Amino acid sequence: MRQYFALLILGIILAFSSCRTDFDTVASTGDLKFSKDTVYLDTVFKNIGSSTYQLKVYNRSKNDISIPIIQLKKGLTSKYRMTVDGMSGNNGKIFNNVTLLAKDSLYIFIETTADITDANPTDFLYTDEIQFDSGVNLQEVALVTLIQDAVFLFPKQNPDGTKEKIQIDGKAVDGFYLNENDSENGNELVFTNQKPYVIYGYAGVPEDKTVTFNAGARVHFHANSGLYVGKNASLQIDGTASTTEKLENEVVFEGDRLESLYSDIPGQWKSVILSKESKNNTINHLTLKNAVIGLDIQTQNNPILIQNTQIYNCAQYGILAQNSEINGVNIVINYSGLASLSCVYGGSYSFTHCTFNNNWPSSSQFAVNISNSLAGASPEANPLTKAIFNNCIIYGSGINEFNLSKNANAAFVYQLNNCLLKFSSSSSNPLYQFKTDTEHYNNIILNENPKFYKPSENKFNIDKTSAAFAKGNQAYAIPLDILGITRTSPPDLGAYQTQDFSK
What we know:
mainly beta, 27-stranded mixed beta sheet, six-stranded mixed beta sheet
């Protein structure tokens, strides 16, 4: 009987509670609060979807409220789209009678896909507003996006639905060959600074042709995309020194996500591949970011000149060279998953006034790796006829940033002159006798801090407090640094001449 009465009382309580009106809503009175008054959706290319951006809406009152309408001001024609607390509404444009509980909040997620023709022709901004309620209770949050026009290059689609492909290292990959007489884009072998370029798949350079990148050219690679320079083809990058941080005269290679969130994420696109049979390749004032392998250099019997070049945030290597010949001057590389510079399977290399750093957050990576062998190759070892570093900095966040791997079955010739080098662990290995081995090491500054300006931001300038200040050998000096500043005598080590950071 007691159990019966207990159940009866519980039922009565539940019945009364179900009749409460605490959760009845009242009409919104225009007192909503917002996490921001303007949502800036970062720059996007025309007709390429943006990332998703967030707006939080707060009800500070003690009442549960109903917002009669949340909508985009341009209605169903708006190029923006929203979800409101997980609801898609009318095509993501209009939402009716949205409930927001007392002292609670809701999330609105916003995206856009717009054409350059949708934007304001004077500033290329596409704008709209999210409207909450109407009349005297109307509240608005502005939406702003910069739409950038671009030249899009991509593989054609075959009649059977497959994509056009090209051969790279014996494998068919999604790609196409650049056409000097394309009906839509004109000469695709000349990249100008008039518009940025967006590449899907691998853009191949046809045999006996040269692809040229003019000063100020901007090239954006989609995921799994890259540039391939094949048999008897050539790469010519003709950037020049810039006077501002906008790098207005550099040639820039990077991913196609323009949002700030993606500005330093490694591995967004594949690589620039210089095949074994490519020739006459020159690179000057290139800034390359966020690839898997920045420069994959396989060229043989055709030396490549790389000058005034910056390579950052590569998932594997900044430069990977296999049995190649490189003359590198004023190169800066940082943040690479395996090595900033890796020269393997022999070859001939000379680097002067370069800054090879690696701040990848793991101790198993190197700033510089040199080897005369390659696993699985036949023969396994190949002669390293020269690996010379003059007036360079080899540094990073690891214990040892310099790695040599010698196979006794092939030549292994190397020398470091007037270099600042990080190699903190003691070693009896004859390859690393920095103080006593004068055949391979001369005037080495070991484990002293170069005091880079802001290495976390890829700014490797130094000042007079740096251990690299005025430690170079004038005999190896390059007259101008990577910024075009005249070097002093004796010169500083690395790619940058000393600057005063206090100014």
